[in-house]
Amino acid sequence: MPDTDRPDLTSLAAAGPIAADGRLPLIGLDKAEMTALAVDMGEKPYRGTQLFQWIYSKGARTFEDMTDVSKEFRTRLADTFTLERPKIAQEQLSEDGTRKWLHAFADGQKAEAVLIPEDDRGTLCISSQVGCTLTCRFCHTGTQRLVRNLTPGEILAQIMVARDALGEWPTPKDDSRRLTNIVLMGMGEPLYNFESVKKAMQIVMTGDGISVSRHRITLSTSGVVPEIARCGEELRVNLAISLHAANDDVRSQIMPINKKYPLKELMEACRTYPGVSNARRITFEYVMLKDINDSEADARALVALVKDVHCKFNLIPFNPWPGTPYECSDRKTIERFQEVMTSAGLTCPIRTPRGRDILAACGQLKTDSEKLSAKERRVQAEEAWAEKEAQLVL
Length: 394
Ligand code: SF4
Prior knowledge:
The protein has twelve helices and 13 strands. The chain has helices at residues 31-40, 46-56, 71-80, 152-166, 194-205, 225-235, 248-254, 257-260, 263-271, 296-305, 331-343, 374-392; strands at 24-25, 81-82, 87-93, 99-104, 110-117, 122-126, 129-130, 148-149, 181-184, 217-221, 238-242, 282-288, 311-317. A nine-stranded mixed sheet has the order 3-4-5-6-9-10-11-12-13, with helices on one face. The chain has a two-stranded parallel sheet with strand order 1-2. The chain has a two-stranded antiparallel ribbon with strand order 7-8.
């Protein structure tokens, strides 16, 4: 290969694991990087924009598809790079239409994405890590050790696979899209992998690419306080907080990260989240756990806690998973809780659980497929929590 054909591969190393055949992934590069790559390969800069649009707007699966790019350049690209999506290790369809994909990346690591179709929108919940460092007690992923962060390309690929499945290439106009919203609420804590999440979402938001507006992207965090402001300043997407308790005692018990970043600090970060206003409120996610956080007194304490935060709530009936120590609050209790909140003027819908039958509902994601009894899973979960927390020094 002459020198002009040899691209600077340093920026590509971060895009994702190298494919089994040794080629490098292009999914995960932004427009500036694709332009630099084209120039490195002796092409005009506009070829980078063409590549970007073929990949992210038209959903090209091979370089052969890029009909307005010279055959010679396409061949050189195909020799070194790949547009391969992750393999789909498993795909499940719930009776309510929810779809779950278990993605297997080039190094064999796996993470899940869930598409939740509704009448007026389609929300894709994507993962940011394989496993998770944290140990939220109600969350199935929390029983899985952190394996690694996902790369920008792997985060993007989850969206592209969903678009492939829906046949939504080229990027349709907003009003005809079925995949309209993206939530970073799958496996992992996105603020512990912020650089990759940021890059992936910046590519997603680019107008001549996947083109999803920042107003339709929500990053959900367990409350990594020092990173919250950055998310607002650098990404400007909607923020959701996994709150789940109205006081530090209960929150630290079910979300040990609260010992590190207690509610006072978390509420301050929410009050001052860049761009927050009554028109752009923070969403507090609140999972209803029987006899843990579901009393009327809890609801009143919650109202007091968020009194000067622009916010809305989602009450989430707990979605059980094998080995969980918790039960879901009964419907009456949830409705009473909701009444206290709404009478205080808070928007507080009860979320309809989706995809429960395929373990695709909130907090149910986990990639292992071992066949264990509920008791064995409980023991396994407790061991994993203890081990992770010993390493974490919360
Ligand atoms: S809720 Fe999120 S941050 Fe907490 S353990 Fe589960 S995946 Fe990790």
